[in-house]
Amino acid sequence: MANPYFKFKQFTVFHDRCAMKVGTDGSLLGAWAEVEHARRILDIGTGTGLVALMAAQRSRADITAIDIDAAAAEQARGNVERSPWKERIEVRQMDARKLPDEWEGRFDAVVSNPPYFTEELKSPSASRNFARHTDGLSFEELLRNAAKSLAEGGVFSVVLPAGSAPDFMAAALKERLHLSRQTWVHTKPGAPPKRVLMAFVKGAVLQAEVRRLDIEARPKEYSPEFAELLRPFYLAL
After folding, report:
1. Residues 118 and 134 sit within 8 Å (Cβ to Cβ)
2. Tens of pLDDT along 114-141?
């Protein structure tokens, strides 16, 4: 039986009631996203609350975490309540396509580990499908609401399959979100990129910073770059 929780250095995330479990994608985004200087952060599609908790560890911000799924929102609330930052994180069950008008321009940073498997075979689990396919939330809808929620100069950080990057960047430009950082994530040296981490600024950007990150340096051994990024969180590092 799979472990119902994942223990980090400063908090524990239970994920037995969530369609999508704690994984590398969320951990990478939580460690990489630009949140250090934010005062208010919005986490769209929070799931277990992992990214919101990592953002709380890395900042002093007040964080609003939303998810359309009732079970996920309830589990995220429990994870937040057991964390050191429960006074700074609010979890709401909410459709990201229907954000309140008063949230316009409210957040300095928006983060999302969004649904994205638009072309792949679907799971028999309806909740897992909704968590990982764009049927419920398209890229255009995600970007539109992220842009609406961001203050001028705010940053939207996201993790996606590598192949989705061109379409996502094109859609982001329509919302006046300009790429400022991009990290291609490879499972190992020589392998094609599997994921991409991207940060978009609401406003002008002179030139985007582009890097690569290998998860493993060799089989079963994390690369120095991955270890440095996740060391504040992973017990094994």
Report:
1. yes
2. 866 444 433 444 333 333 334 568 999 9
Residue 106, exposed/middle/buried by CB under 10 A (0-12, 13-18, 19+)? middle
Name the residue among 68, 25, 27, 19 with its Cα closest to residue 162.
25
Q: In Å, how far are 33, 147, 177, 217 from 28, measured between CA atoms?
A: 8, 22, 21, 16
**What are phi and psi for residue 196, nearest 5 degrees?**
-140, 135
Q: Which two tokens stand for residue 225?
A: 């770059």
Bridge partner list, 234: 8
Q: Are 30 and 233 in contact (CB under 8 A)?
A: yes
CA–CA separation, 213 and 189 (whole Å): 9
pTM: 0.91
* Beta-carbon contacts of residue 107 (< 8 Å; ≥ 6 apart): 38, 40, 41, 42, 64, 149, 150, 151, 154
Cα–Cα separations (whole angstroms), residue 55 to 9, 35, 191, 194, 210: 14, 6, 29, 23, 22
CATH for the 5-230 domain, from 3.40.50.2300, 3.60.15.10, 3.40.50.150, 3.40.50.970: 3.40.50.150
Mean pLDDT, consecutive 10-residue stretches, the chain (237 aa), reads 89 92 95 97 97 98 96 97 98 95 97 69 38 62 96 98 95 97 97 97 95 96 98 96
